[in-house]
Design a protein that fits this description.
Largest sheet of chain A: none
Helix content of chain A: over 70%
Pfam family, one (chains A, B): Annexin
Number of helices of chain A: 20
Mean pLDDT of chain A: 95
Oligomer: homodimer
GO molecular function (chains A, B): calcium ion binding; calcium-dependent phospholipid binding; phosphatidylserine binding
Protein name (chains A, B): Annexin
Number of domains of chain A: 4
CATH superfamily of the largest domain in chain A: Annexin
Family (chains A, B): Belongs to the annexin family.
Largest interface: A-B, 30 and 30 residues
Keywords (chains A, B): Annexin, Calcium, Calcium/phospholipid-binding, Metal-binding, Repeat
Shape of chain A: globular
Chain lengths: 314, 314
């Protein structure tokens, strides 16, 4: 379900490095060449290119890129070039440090990754920042959001398919009771959402619908302006329908006045090797226009080129 | 600092399996033979023996042991034979299910292991119980203990030596202020103890002593009967002086009326390959008697034999 396109015969790593080095040389930078290489290599290849480039030229590839390109194009190229776990660590660190109630990065990294991927991001966080993700989240965020987000990024959830249906039934009841009382930050709601496995949570949400006749997220829409409620809904959607969750992020990033390049870049770079094809389908279905066309309308130049390349546009 | 003694030339795994199989055969069981093998093999060897035994005899070694031996001797042999991560998973699961405020297993697994070892225990927990440690702790424990123990077992702490001294200074102040107000379960105390790295916490406790003239644990002794305070002290001691922490568990297990075999077995089996030599030294220093002698006085027969073997007694 990835959109990343890789040539049938990928050139040798040494040749990719040479071409990238050439793209940086002389007057100006050959952005098209950079895109034609990096936007068409999978994570393992990009890692090999970074290693070989540093050995061949005595300079980190990311640093060389940072010297040559700028702004939102630079951010997209660098985020994309990073390993998925490292990229998640960088994004999570940015959000933890300048957190605001509308932030969604921590939710996505905790809930739209597998438990093993979340753990890999936490290891990358240690390596890069010499601290833990959980201590930064706990130190920078306060109140109810801290109560929710610290366990959300901390738990190592079970990842298997086993489901306890009677537990799903009783925990759906607990969720309903607390939501009914508007006790949205109740520790039972937080306990269930932050510790149960994805399979168990899906069973619980299904039981909720069966018992109470409407989806849990509808009951969490009582106050559309409440960002804590919005965060709970985001958590649930990242588990139940990540493609539609990300479609909405893209819809809001592209629609309305101005474009939110941070959101656009994040969703494209984090999903291009995962499920961006599904997200594209959801986008077209919901907006009656292809995601490629919407991106082309809202972006320009090299930034447009790399986003479209990652989207798998011809 | 381990007490485990392994022969200079360890027999081939197949021979160990044959000997164990022989120990189970015929009338009665040869407990001495079981001890002479399993109590003198390191974790990697024991793992190899388990694998080879199951292949050779079509029966899990642990099941064969369970059919032959019983009671506290069985428990000691089986806990010891398990992989360290699996053993931690089993112990943590037992404590989570029948938790009481005096329980120390979760604290030990969270604070007297490296972050990587704690994570390995959580992986073993998934494999064995098809659930996560954090969800079981969260589901079975309530109130202030839940607020403390869930993040304690969840966090993946940074494990490096880097210390932020000004942070240590300011967080020591926060701890002092909250303790002074008897706000022992305050979320700031919990945040600091459950997320900061071991090196950072040691710096914070040192700063506490420097700023306020006595160790933090002295201030946490306000009410000696308060089990929440005792748990906080146990957390701090597992970080600052695990040898003396475990010495005290052994002292209480062996002293007074009756012997607490659960505590004795747990400490011996979990530390024999780690730091039991240091714990023995601390024991002798504190009790003016060797740990071997105290164990010999309080235990009998096969159980005594395996505990003494793991203690490295001649």
């Amino acid at each position: 379900m990835a959109t990343l396109t890789v040539p049938a015969a990928v050139p040798p790593v040494a040749e990719d490095c040479e071409q990238l080095h050439k793209a940086f040389e002389g007057w100006g930078t050959n952005e098209k060449l950079i895109i034609s290489i990096l936007a068409h290599r999978d994570a393992a290849h990009r890692r090999a290119i970074r290693r070989a480039y540093a050995e061949a030229y005595g300079k980190e590839l990311l640093r060389a890129l940072g010297d040559e390109i700028h702004g939102k194009f630079e951010r997209a190229v660098i985020l994309w070039t990073l390993d998925p776990a490292e990229r998640d660590a960088v994004l999570a660190n940015e959000e933890a440090k300048k957190w605001h109630p509308g932030g969604r990065v921590l939710v996505e990294i905790a809930c739209a990754r597998t438990p093993a991927q979340l753990f890999a991001a936490k290891q990358a966080y240690h390596d890069r920042f010499k601290r833990s993700l959980e201590e930064d989240v706990a130190a920078h965020i306060t109140g109810d959001f801290r109560k929710l987000l610290v366990p959300l990024v901390s738990a190592y959830r079970y990842d298997g398919p086993e489901v306890n249906t009677s537990l799903a039934h009783s925990e759906a009841k607990i969720l309903h009771e607390k939501i009914h009382k508007k006790a949205y930050s109740d520790e039972e709601i937080i306990r269930i959402l932050t510790t149960r496995s994805k399979a168990q949570l899906l069973a619980t949400f299904n039981s909720y619908k069966d018992q109470f006749d409407h989806p849990i997220n509808k009951d969490l829409k009582a106050d559309p302006k409440d960002e804590f409620l919005a965060t709970l809904r985001a958590i649930i959607r990242c588990f139940t329908c990540p493609d539609r969750y990300f479609e909405k992020i893209l819809r809001l990033a592209l629609g309305g006045m101005g474009t939110d390049e941070d959101d656009l870049t994040r969703v494209i770079t984090t999903r291009a090797e995962v499920d961006l094809k599904l997200i594209k389908e959801a986008y077209q279905k919901r907006n009656s226009v292809t995601l490629e066309r919407a991106v082309a309308k809202d972006t320009t130049r090299d930034y447009e080129d790399i986003i479209l390349a990652l989207l798998g546009a011809e």
